[in-house]
Design a protein that fits this description.
Cytochrome p450; 16 helices; 13 strands; 454 residues; single chain; alpha+beta; 2 domains; binds protoporphyrin IX containing FE; three-stranded antiparallel beta sheet; six-stranded mixed beta sheet
Length: 454
């Protein structure tokens, strides 16, 4: 087939990652030290070729190249071996659907994330943030990693299912979802597909977790069908939506797949970033003081509401800077669906492309002193100087995160409420290191709490 589109003309450089001998190629470096390995690659070119087992993959390192890939979904679709595996868990939802299905699904699901809906989800977020603050005691350290996962699981479950979800259902999601996410990540790392077939304890637990989640979702969807939707929650929006082109509605299976997709994509990402924010604040007292000055001024100890968000610009900058330093979606992929040229290099159909927001966000040519936590980068006068396409925590193009505003709203409300209610200090001896799994986690983050005077 004839080569298709080319990225905008520019003197692109193309290189090869060093090392990578032996049958695994660079797969070992990618599995063992993914972050340092990937961030070492931009010096070899705008497009860097790696070998993962018998396959070639390409890391796009220049923001213009990345944008070109993400905006040209006719040439670079979501696909490949990774998506085939994800399909076994997520079915044919937004993340896994091919281009044609994806366009239709996106048209139908977008209304569920309309601003009017977000304002109503924000009331649930506000209640859950207040509730978690009420549940803490000064005498007991809290693992903020667990706490933030519990918070975002409760928020997402309640926004999806509103009042039709029992406490025990939320607990099931909290219990089984992390097992599924961990298992999905391990499966993605094993190109042979052999490890998942061995009847180990981990594999049995994964199977059980997936079965439990699937049957919980089936139960919840049929409960909605029986009672009729009509609520302000996400599932009601999915049940009511009609394709503007064909007038068709989503089938039960399609709704099931979208619910699983939203649970998988929405809970861990936001929780990881919130945990990193709390960690960074504990390490940067000057930033924490400015944040608390803002939240105290606006909230004075009460829970933040949707209407407060415009008055919390520094809180938003703190979270944005966290997303720059620790983007939860630290890497994602595309596959060429036709032969094409990229950075002057010929790529066959079926080539794997890696996009890493972590690599872009840590590139000193795009963000001076990239290891410095500096929320003022996002002050309007400085943010204007950041190259377009350099900051991509939510991706770009037709597959840009559908939950970006949802996630940002949830995170700003949580950060503001938590910090106006509690002073948080890292517990003595606590060590935190990035763990690049399905999202970029921190591991346990024990913190000692002191109540702030209201
Ligand atoms: C800080 C939080 C979040 C981050 C950093 C994040 C990041 C991302 C990124 C980078 C993508 C694009 C992946 C690609 O292009 O292949 C994505 C897609 C997606 N995200 Fe998020 N996400 C977050 C929160 C959420 C939330 C809260 C939800 C749902 C409630 C959500 C649902 C989704 C879905 C369904 C997709 C697939 C969209 C599509 O292909 O049309 N995400 N997310």
């Amino acid at each position: 087939m004839a080569p298709t589109t080319e990225a905008p003309a520019q003197a692109w450089t193309h290189g090869r990652a060093p090392g990578g001998r032996g049958p695994a190629g660079h797969a070992l470096s990618l599995a063992r030290t993914p972050l340092s390995f990937l961030t070492s690659l931009p010096r070899y070119g705008d497009l860097v070729e790696l070998r993962l087992g018998h396959r070639r993959a390409y890391l796009a390192c220049h923001p213009d190249l990345v944008r070109h890939i993400l905006l040209d979904s006719k040439t670079f679709d979501s696909g490949g071996a990774l998506k085939d595996k994800a399909r076994l868990i997520l079915g044919n939802g937004l993340i896994t659907a091919g281009r044609q299905d994806h366009r239709k699904q996106r048209r139908m699901i977008q209304p569920a994330f309309h601003q009017r809906r977000i304002a109503s989800y924000a009331r649930i977020m506000q209640q859950e943030c207040a509730q978690i603050c009420d549940s803490w005691h000064a005498s007991r350290p809290v693992d903020m990693c667990d706490a933030m996962h519990a918070l975002t699981a409760r928020v997402t479950a309640r926004c999806l299912f509103s009042t039709n979800i029992a406490q025990s259902d939320v607990r099931e999601i909290q219990q089984w979802l992390p097992v599924v996410i961990r298992g999905a990540f391990h499966r993605a790392l094993d190109p042979t597909g052999l490890l998942e077939r061995v009847p180990t304890r981990g594999n049995r637990r994964f199977d059980e977790a997936l079965t439990r989640l699937n049957s919980l979702i089936t139960r919840l969807v049929s409960r909605y069908r029986a009672r009729g939707a009509g609520g302000q929650d996400l599932l009601s929006a999915l049940l009511e939506t009609e394709d503007t082109k064909t007038g068709s509605r989503l089938s039960d299976q399609e709704i099931h797949d979208q619910v699983m997709t939203l649970l998988l994509a929405g809970i861990e990402t936001t929780a990881s970033a919130l945990t990193w924010s709390l960690h960074l604040l504990s390490r940067h007292p000057g930033v924490a003081d400015r944040l608390v000055a803002e939240t105290d001024d606006v909230l004075g100890g009460r829970a933040a509401t949707y209407e407060d968000i415009p008055a919390l610009p520094y809180t938003s900058r703190v979270f944005n800077e966290t997303l720059r330093m620790f983007p939860p979606a630290w890497v994602f992929t595309r596959t060429t669906v036709v032969d094409t040229r990229l950075a002057g290099h010929r790529l066959p159909s079926g080539a794997d492309i890696l996009i890493s927001p972590y690599v872009l966000h840590r590139n000193p040519r795009l963000f001076p002193e990239p290891r410095r936590f500096d929320p003022d980068r996002w002050a309007p006068e400085r943010a204007a100087g950041i190259p377009s396409g350099a900051m991509l925590p939510f991706g770009a193009g037709s597959r840009k995160c559908i939950g970006d505003v949802f996630g940002m709203t949830e995170a700003v409300l949580a950060l503001a409420t938590l910090t106006t209610r509690w002073k948080m200090t890292l517990a003595p001896g606590a060590k935190v290191r990035p763990k690049a799994a399905m999202s970029l986690g921190s591991g346990p983050l024990p913190m000692v709490l002191t109540p702030r005077d209201k």
